[in-house]
Amino acid sequence: MSLSGNLKTVAFPDILQLLATGKKTGVLELKTSTRQKEVAFKDGNIIHASSINSSEDLLGNMLVNRGKISKSDLERAITLHKQTGRQLGTTLIDMNIFDKAEIAEVLKQQIEEIVYNLFSWKDGDFIFHEGAAPKNAPFLVDLNTMSVIMEGTRRIDEWLEIQKVLPPDDVLLAISKAPKVHREEISLSIDEFRILGLINGERTLPDLINLSPVGEFPTCRAIYRLVVNNLIEVVGKRDKEEAQKEDEEEVVLSIIFKLYNNCFYQIRTLFEEVLGEDNTRYSAFAAQYRSGLLSYFPGIDPNSDLMPSFKKFLNTVRTIPEPIRFQKLLRDLDTMLSEQLEFIFDLLGVQSFRTGVAAVKREISEPLATRRELVKRYGIEDNLYQTIKRADKVVKMVRG
Description:
- The chain is an alpha+beta fold.
- It contains 16 helices and 7 strands.
- A hairpin with a 4-residue loop joins strand 2 and strand 3.
């Protein structure tokens, strides 16, 4: 089976579904200029995953953060592992620090986090090596790929809500001295209990993610629940070195410019994949957006030389009176996005509509992770999420 391409045109969940339904065995390799991951399959199920050149660090850090091993013991194990060439997990078992079941549990979690992280990738080359076996994989798992797809998609949706509540990266978090709760007993999950033990008034959100014994998503989900249950609070702000003041408006506009262009590119790509590059119905429909501010969002490859200039876009936006600048820009873009999503349903049907919505949701997650405070303050994610809901509501009404 020949399967290769770029995640810009074929989304990671679609690749997983293809391999699962085909009950394929082999190794899926994915890489960008800075990252490389591999996911191994047997009869369509996931049996292993690795981050090239960082798997051992992940395992060691997870064990240290869980309090399962001291840093000195880990350093001894890494030295021995490099001398013998045996896997770090195997070396830890040989040293009688862990038994096989304990290592297998942590490796399973590591594999799951590597795979779920790939759901946020929107770019990167991939190739499937059919029949290949994973290298240096003494421990294999058996993950149902369709279940992984469902969980990964659910995480994207849940992530949107979590990001709205997470505190800024530079504030210090502490356990609430007088929690405002409406009941005498509060139930905590294991993850929430673990994270609560790390919160001491001197750590920020990034600190907690780095120290957490679980992955980034479970950590953020636990902090989200602790916040909404009023169990933790902000107690200060970490001092920053004097930095050059940035043009906040320009930063926000650059996020909007990149985010919406990527969304419209995903929509155009969907039409081209289904109808072919020579289709005229989508081009005729999109022609209505070729004037004013919307002309800066043509839906072409953001890396293309044909992409409009952000500098010209910035200058055009700044001709709008400041009090209504962002309101008008986001209103026009959200109307355009909603209309294009509804057109997918009108022309291609409900399944393609769902595919388009999933592609747009993946685009939303990146700015939330990179400039969370700014995106939240300007309501960018709220506008996008409400736009998707409106389009979905229209489709449901049409379908009856």
